[in-house]
Specification:
This protein has 152 residues and is α+β, with helices and mostly antiparallel strands. The relative contact order is 0.16. 34% of the residues lie in helices and 32% in strands. The protein has one domain. It has a five-stranded mixed beta sheet. A two-stranded antiparallel ribbon has the order 1-2. The chain is built from three helices and seven strands. The two termini are 14 Å apart.
Length: 152
């Protein structure tokens, strides 16, 4: 769907695709903010792996979805210990909405998993909102399930 966008110089530009523009802005945001958040999350992961005190809070929604989607607590901890933040948005100075991705081993192969969570770097806290297999919406992701192709 085409739409008209006004540039900073006051010029009007017709865009061919609203998703194309959204993805461009989204990628610019990630390029700017993701490295710093990844650094904070790596510190958090080190604390998990060293059994230091961190708060990992489950929600009822996450519990319900994990059961429906056959995701174990062990799978979730594997993602938290080894995963990478693939998307983020800032909520306030130290709190971020994050999407964490990793592969977990099942009986015969590896399964991609995404965890959507609120990460508070100052309080060493992660509140898990939901967990899902990105193959359920395969058209939204690249083959590696680390980059969103479009929003729905």
């Amino acid at each position: 769907m085409p739409y008209i966008k006004k540039s900073k110089k006051g010029e009007y530009k017709v865009s061919k695709n609203i998703d194309e523009e959204r993805m461009k802005r989204h990628q610019q945001y990630l390029d700017k903010h993701l490295p710093a958040i990844e650094c904070l999350f790596n510190i958090f992961q080190d604390k998990i792996n060293n059994s230091d005190h961190v708060a990992i809070i489950d929600t009822r929604h996450k519990d319900k979805r994990a059961l429906e989607r056959a995701v174990s607590q062990k799978d979730i901890m594997t993602v938290l210990k080894n995963g990478d933040i693939i998307e983020t948005s800032k909520i306030d100075e130290s709190t971020y909405d994050v999407l964490i991705m990793s592969y977990v081993k099942n009986t015969t192969n590896y399964r991609p998993l995404h965890i959507s969570a609120i990460f508070d770097a100052d309080r060493d806290m992660l509140k898990i909102k939901t967990v899902y297999d990105p193959r359920s919406k395969e058209e939204q992701w690249t083959n590696s399930y680390t980059t969103r192709v479009f929003f729905k």
